[in-house]
Amino acid sequence: MTRRIVRTSIQLGSLIFIILLFVFLLDNRYRVLPATIHNHLPAHHPGFVITDVTVKKCSSLNPISSCRLDPDKWHRVEKDLYLGSGWVSKAYVHIKRKKEEELVEGDKVIMDVRVGKLDPAMGEKGQESEKWESRPAGIWLKRSAKHHDRDSKSVVTALDVLFGPDAVEPRSGWRLIENSLLLDTSAEAQEVRISIRQGQPHKIEKHVPKVRDDGRFKIMQAADLHLSTGLGTCRDPEPKGHNGGRCDADVRTLDFVGKLLDEEKPDLVILSGDQVNGETAPDAQSAVFKFAELFIKRSIPYAVIFGNHDDEGSLTRSSMMSLIASLPYSLSEAGTNTIDGIGNYYIEVLARGKSQHSALTLYLLDTHGYSPDERQFKGYDWIKPNQIKWFEDTAKSLKTAHKHYTHIHLDMAFIHIPLPEYSNRNLKFVGNWKEGVTAPGFNTHFHDALVAANIPVVSCGHDHVNEYCMLSTEDGTKEGHPKLWMCYGGAAGFGGYGGYGGYHRRMRFFEIDTNEARITTWKRLEWGETNKRIDEQIIVDGGNVVDRT
């Protein structure tokens, strides 16, 4: 009996070991474990200073190995430096940190971080007298020389890890270290970059959007950027031979967005979902920073809602929204937690001059991801009844507040997944309808709620090569009385599909003229007639939906 128990225990233990090994190997490659286990957002606690940095490498073949140093002494930045691409290796950056008030005489703090093969003091002007300490992966640390240095603005108070040769650091007070970590990586692995914050966190003032002195306000809708960790791979680029045949998706996408920011000079950018191409973004934070940096360096406010791909990478919707909301010039909000979704909120744009009255309200709602009932309603999720109730209550409350505004107040709404009403072939539309409308199979009639609240325009993304504006009418026919314009943004990103008849990526703009209570829209192309406004039309005039097709 005893032998049988021992033998059974050994067999059971071996089976458990094999299962654990399989799960860890599978997760290392495909990330099958819940997002809460990964916890990819590093903690940056105020009041702490960093006293040491190192890299710990371990074997991913051993499921018992945590690749972790003594947790009582070291904090691990929860990002595998190989991003799961190493079959046999994992590595993590670890930092030692202390509260400033806990530092004692003799404690030294980190004043700077460099990465490279050579000692930074060798041959670099101004560094000859400095002493640098080496750490694994080519990290060099410069420690404080004097006790009072710990109060300096140069003391390192937080450290992060970003990925890709195109990594950027948009956060105030942060600096991206020039060289990538020296890891023995494969050709497929991403470059690993260290970013540090020196001094205490910078206070971010929330920007208040305002109509320009000429009474106008321009919105750029950036739909479906599909950014990756790293350069990304183009899908269906047009023209295919552009740039000698090489096409890095994120480079071309961001160049396009940046060009239009400089030429159109919008007052606000609405990112209407699928900013991040989840399956190619094992570090979604690096992808987020790339689009945010475009707006931050130009001092242009921006607001985000999510699509069905954003949270398929390393970050949940909630974590991603927290990250984006913390960045300069971001107007993004998670919204109330009493209704479904992350990112149900509104933005008030103030009237020109010194007025504190709202001239324009923008409603942004989360359309979620995939159908929760695939057997009955295939495809995509839908706006939930409690979201519609929130919208109705909010719109009613704001309309009461807007009565004090002396001009006609205007409203717009932005979503990611189109409403079922977008698929009505009996209605007029301006632009291209090149693919089927992938709206939810279940209709919760948010369209009707928009009409009842007198919202004249809603715009979405999701279907990359549909980029029309469709006029919804009272009786659902081309001749009916106008009641709502339903627009698409037109996909801008080369990381997502676009191969329908030589489709050129594009961006939609809305210009609001508060003097005439008018909304005009048009599109701009990435290739071809790049300096021309495409399908320009007035869709609202005198505050009313109009048909000028």
What is the 3D form? globular
Give me the CATH architecture of the largest domain, please.
4-Layer Sandwich
Give the ordered list of helices and strands: HHEEEEEEEEEEHEHEHEEHEEHEEEEEEE
CATH superfamily of the largest domain: Metallo-dependent phosphatases
Radius of gyration: 26 Å
Q: Could you list the spans in which at least 5 consecutive residues all have pLDDT below 50? A: 23-43
Give the strand order, joined by hyphens, for the main sheet: 12-11-10-20-21-22-23
Q: Which structural class best describes the helix and strand composition?
A: alpha+beta
- Quaternary organisation: single chain
CATH class of the largest domain: Alpha Beta
Instruction: Round the mean pLDDT to the nearest integer and report it.
Output: 90
CATH T-level topology of the largest domain: Purple Acid Phosphatase, chain A, domain 2
Strand tally is 23
